[in-house]
Amino acid sequence: MTHKLRFAAATALALVLSTQSLLAEVPSTVGATYRAESSTEALAPGEKIENLFTKNMKQPYVLQKLTDRVYFYEGGFYGTIFYVGDRGVLLFDPLEGQGPGLLKAIAGVTDLPVTAIVYSHNHADHINDTPVILKAFPGAEIIATAATADQMRHLGSKHPAPTHVLGADEKSFDFEGLTVDVVRALNDAHAHDHAIFVLEGEKVAHIPDVINPDQPPFWAFAGSASYLGYRELVEQIGSLDWDYLSGGHGNVGSRADVTFYLQFLDDLEAAVGQAMGEVPWGFGVDASKLTAHTPMLPAWYDEIARRATESLRSKYGDYYGFEAATPANAEMVAEYLFSYR
After folding, report:
1. Distance of alpha carbon 310 from its chain centroid, rounded?
2. Pairing status of strand 78-84 against strand 70-75
3. Cα–Cα distance between 93 and 109 in angstroms, integer?
4. Residue whose C-alpha is closest to residue 234's, from 334, 253, 67
5. Which of 36, 122, 145, 160 is 20 to 30 Å from the Cα of 315, by its Cα?
6. Cβ-proximal residues to 52 (8 Å cutoff; 6+ apart), any chain
7. Kind and range of the H or E run holding 320
8. CA distance 314 to 311
9. CB-CB neighbours of 266 under 10 Å
């Protein structure tokens, strides 16, 4: 399903549920304190926005103040941040389908123009509405790492090209006196050109699609090519100096979310390892009917993933998206453990 079809499906479901007063909300993975959404009152580090699933289903977008100058935006389950300077706004990742909402949200807190856009990585669902922002603010520069610029050229990207390319030796850039640290991801678990952006002083970090705060890892570790390097990327994020995490999806993140992820990965690896020792090769396949060996490995992984998911359910089953995401993640861990024994 394309991103546009997924967005349309989510929009249709939101319309169906729009008459309901409240949708089901699940427990916090980190025992967070929830606060009412506010564009004027900042969250304290560790606090989260209440009823975020319901808000994503029923509101055009969510806007939450994080610090005096940084705001968290989420619409259609896609999130990002923007920084309000003295002369302009620094916007990260103009999310697909969210350009109009972003413009409205920004206008709700400042009259200043968007003067700079940052691409965190070259995935269309996070940068597709850049033309919407540029139509409103045609003078805005586009900042991206050389890895992202190279990736866009290599793939023949139709998205607006970066106008300010950060070389491999550039560790930060300046926006109106704000230093934004640029930390290249040590592993390309999610994207070949991923970088972590940390707003110094504000202590806000932005890296989509690795940690979904207040949720277990998303299906297939958010579209990662493999499990190889994923844990190390989570650890790298945790090693940096920040109080608030913008993860591209999920709630506002905190240090507790990193701790939760690492514990979940420990438990997932253990559960998969246990299941690998229990499930015999050839499980679920009638060898007398085979015309190729191809079904053997998928059937083996599938049963391992099923058993691992079942073993984790008592501890994690009530959390957001566990049932839909964990089998695919367990299968990826099984492939990783089998390949790199």
Report:
1. 25
2. antiparallel
3. 18
4. 253
5. 36
6. 25, 62, 74, 214, 250, 251
7. none
8. 7
9. 11
Domains of the chain with bracketed CATH: 3-253 (3.60.15.10), 263-339 (no CATH)
Say if residue 277 is exposed, middle or buried (CB neighbours under 10 Å; 0-12, 13-18, 19+). exposed
Residue 179: both structure tokens together: 């230093």
The structure tokens listed for 318 are 């009530």
Integer Cα distance of 322 and 318 in angstroms:
7
pLDDT tens for 243-301 read: 999 999 999 999 999 999 999 999 999 999 999 999 999 998 988 888 999 999 999 99
CB of 132 within 8 A of CB of 103? yes
Indicate the pTM of the whole model. 0.92
| CA–CA dist 206, 224 (Å, integer) | 18
Calculate the alpha carbon distances from 24 to 49, 50, 55, 193, 315 in Å.
15, 12, 11, 36, 19
